[in-house]
């Protein structure tokens, strides 16, 4: 009897400790001003235009530059290494905390539909948000192993601890120091100094020599994102920033995939812009990868994009 009591007491104590740790990590994440979902949950953004997509958008499009050319307030909602499911769910969560924007500018490239070579669903971003039904639904589909484990105490955070614990610690630092600002208040994250040197051989970046596969699940969430924005009456613009020209010969089925993207956009009345005639794509100093630009390249592209949106966005919004 005493042994059984000790076992039960040990189990209860262990569960209590795990639930306590779960609360502590969640608290830290919620107070991390540099964790984008936590920032938008507590700070007014009130953007007219959201820049969205993976790192190609996050590291390139600077809302402060755009706003020097147009009267619309913008925010960079994009997140590194994110696929369409991630894009959809993050936008869904944004709208739980912020007013609806007038329009979304979403980065899409043929690589966006290839689940083998590019981007992924970053489950850890939603570990503290599993109380929401839509979050649970998407997480369960995109990462079923994590979802099953998340029902156990603390595993929602320890499962991807290498992505979460450091962010939680920073959240406590923000809380203790009463920090109210983010290092990236516009959502734009400039590429670090280590990314300011042009890569030597652009043709070796894709392990399959640029033959892009097509994921049905990627397509499903792209369409889900389109439908969601229609229901919310938010205009969607899809774009691809200039690709460094030296990499293009290695993208063997690029034209085929571009036609498929264009077909989907046309069918759903979504404006699709390819900025593939800019002179910047011929200057290696503007790129540190096939798609990502250095600060020099960012300056060129943001100047172009600001003027383009100034002339185009009013018409898009009125449609």
Can you characterise this structure?
Helix content is 46%, strand content 7%. It is of the alpha/beta class. It has one domain: Rossmann fold. A five-stranded parallel beta sheet has the order 2-1-3-4-5. Strand 4 (235-240), helix 11 and strand 5 (271-274) form a beta-alpha-beta unit. The protein is globular and about 80 Å long. The model has no long low-confidence stretch (mean pLDDT 92).
Protein topology:
Elements: H1 2-30, H2 36-42, E1 49-52, H3 55-58, H4 63-66, E2 74-76, H5 84-97, E3 103-107, H6 133-142, H7 144-149, H8 155-158, H9 161-176, H10 216-231, E4 235-240, H11 254-267, E5 271-274, H12 295-318
Parallel strand pairs: 1-2, 1-3, 3-4, 4-5
- CATH second-level architecture: 3-Layer(aba) Sandwich
Low-confidence stretches: none
What would you call the structural class? alpha/beta
| Fourth-level CATH superfamily | SGNH hydrolase
Supply the key terms:
319 residues; five-stranded parallel β-sheet; single chain; alpha/beta; Rossmann fold
TL;DR of this structure?
This protein is of the alpha/beta class and 319 residues long. It has a single domain, classed as SGNH hydrolase (Rossmann fold, 3-Layer(aba) Sandwich).
């Amino acid at each position: 009897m005493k042994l059984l009591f000790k076992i039960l007491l040990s189990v209860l104590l262990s569960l209590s400790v795990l639930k306590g740790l779960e609360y502590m990590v969640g608290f830290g994440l919620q107070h991390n001003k540099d964790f984008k979902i936590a920032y938008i949950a507590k700070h007014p953004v009130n953007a007219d235009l959201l820049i969205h997509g993976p790192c190609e958008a996050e590291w390139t499009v600077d809302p402060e530059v755009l706003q020097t050319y147009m009267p619309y307030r913008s925010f960079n909602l994009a997140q590194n290494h994110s696929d369409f499911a991630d894009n959809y769910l993050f936008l869904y969560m944004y709208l739980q905390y912020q007013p609806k924007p007038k329009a979304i500018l979403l980065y899409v490239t043929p690589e966006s539909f290839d689940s083998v070579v590019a981007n992924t669903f970053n489950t850890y971003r939603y570990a503290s948000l599993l109380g929401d039904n839509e979050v649970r639904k998407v997480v369960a589909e995109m990462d079923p192993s994590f979802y099953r484990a998340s029902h156990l105490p603390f595993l929602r955070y320890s499962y991807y601890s290498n992505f979460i614990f450091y962010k939680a610690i920073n959240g406590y630092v923000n809380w203790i120091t009463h920090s109210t600002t983010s290092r990236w208040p516009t959502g734009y994250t400039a590429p670090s100094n280590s990314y300011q040197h042009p890569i030597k051989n652009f043709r070796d970046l894709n392990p399959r020599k640029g033959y892009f596969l097509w994921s049905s699940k990627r397509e499903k969430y792209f369409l889900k994102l389109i439908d969601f924005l229609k229901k919310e009456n938010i205009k969607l613009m899809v774009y691809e920033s200039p690709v460094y020209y030296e990499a293009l010969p290695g993208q063997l089925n690029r034209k085929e995939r571009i036609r498929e993207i264009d077909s989907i956009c046309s069918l759903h009345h979504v404006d699709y812009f390819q900025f593939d005639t800019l002179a910047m794509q011929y200057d290696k100093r503007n790129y540190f990868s096939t798609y990502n630009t250095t600060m020099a390249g960012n300056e060129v592209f943001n100047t172009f994009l600001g003027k383009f949106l100034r002339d185009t966005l009013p018409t898009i919004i009125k449609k």
